[in-house]
Request: fold
Amino acid sequence: MNTSPRSVLPAARRVVVKIGSSSLTRPDGHLDVVALRALVDVLAERRRAGGEVVLVTSGAVAAGIGPAGLVSRPKDLATVQACAMLGQGQLVARYTEAFAEHGIGVGQALLTAEDTVRRARYRNAQRSLDKLLALGVVPVVNENDAVTVDELRFGDNDRLAALVSHLVRADAMVLLTDVDGLHDAPPSRPGARRIPLVTDLADVAGVEVTARGSSVGTGGMVTKLESVRIATSAGVPVVLTAARNVRAALAGEDVGTFFTAQGRTTARRLWIAHAARTEGRLHLDDGATRAVLGGRASLLPAGITRVEGSFDAGDPVELVAPDGGVVARGLVAYDATELPGLLGRSTFDLRDDLGEGYDREVIHRDDLVLDGRTGLSSSASAS
Ligand SMILES: Nc1ncnc2c1ncn2[C@@H]1O[C@H](COP(=O)(O)OP(=O)(O)O)[C@@H](O)[C@H]1O
Ligand SMILES: N[C@@H](CCC(=O)OP(=O)(O)O)C(=O)O
Reply:
């Protein structure tokens, strides 16, 4: 019997495979169709053997650089978006052709950070991806670069892949890049060695990683480790390896770095805690602070003393204790303009006065994450 922790890979029913820009593009700013086809051959094999595959692919911006007449990755958002619009079409066209040769259809899913945060959108994306998989199609996922604004972007697809892994309840995630796994020092340094197995991310906390990726990728190893942390905390084991090793990785062979799953904290809560930019602050009284810190209560209007910022229902906000310290983050259920009229009032009073619907929590406990209890170190955040 194969008792290696990597045996989850050949046994996995549903896998998410993420490939980075650096593995898909040539130095001249055009797509590397040979690399793309090599990946598709392996994924198609898995699909035809009955496995379900979700492909998270970067490369839209990188593939658009050449067609846009540029020679290097642009810096300003509008040009990045224009390149993505040019490149995404090319990317999906090439995947469609390559999978079609194996008799497999692909469906494009362009997601934004909000699709993985807001409950209704999360469920919507979950339903449509489940349906696509049930139809035997391979979802080809990327960030919707054309419409996302700077402060709400993933920017890199590493964290997107982890959140998608959670969304589709993947049994494993494979992160493909241009290096064969996490090394004990940046791989450009002589003597840097591959780390084959990580069972606790604390063990690699001291490893030097850079946030600068290749000339076309973004985030480098820092965002990959953050992605690993989100996925493994959501119960999804991860292999991080070079794109050329994808077949071996899916077969459970000793390539790259294997990270074991840690638990079942929801990725959505991890995202609320660390990835989303907060839009405002709610100041709490003593009682509400204690209730929130207790970990099981929702936040009610009665315990809020003041509202700061401008936000809509569903946005992430910070919760501030009377001493000024931030104690938690959460997704607020009311717009900033609605809240001042509700503050300090009991839910009974609000229902009598304003009617059904005004007796709901300001932040439901499922949408609340205490500060410092999520297992993500802030030093690992994306640059
Ligand atoms: N300790 C480390 N182990 C492995 N790679 C590292 C480490 N530190 C930095 N890196 C760099 O991270 C890069 C991968 O990130 P990136 O270019 O963003 O990839 P992608 O485009 O595939 O997402 C590698 O090329 C490597 O140079
Ligand atoms: N959504 C972007 C991803 C940007 C990017 O460079 O990501 P990655 O190569 O995964 O670090 C694209 O398709 O170009």
User: Anything to note?
Assistant: Residues 373-383 have pLDDT under 50 and may be disordered.
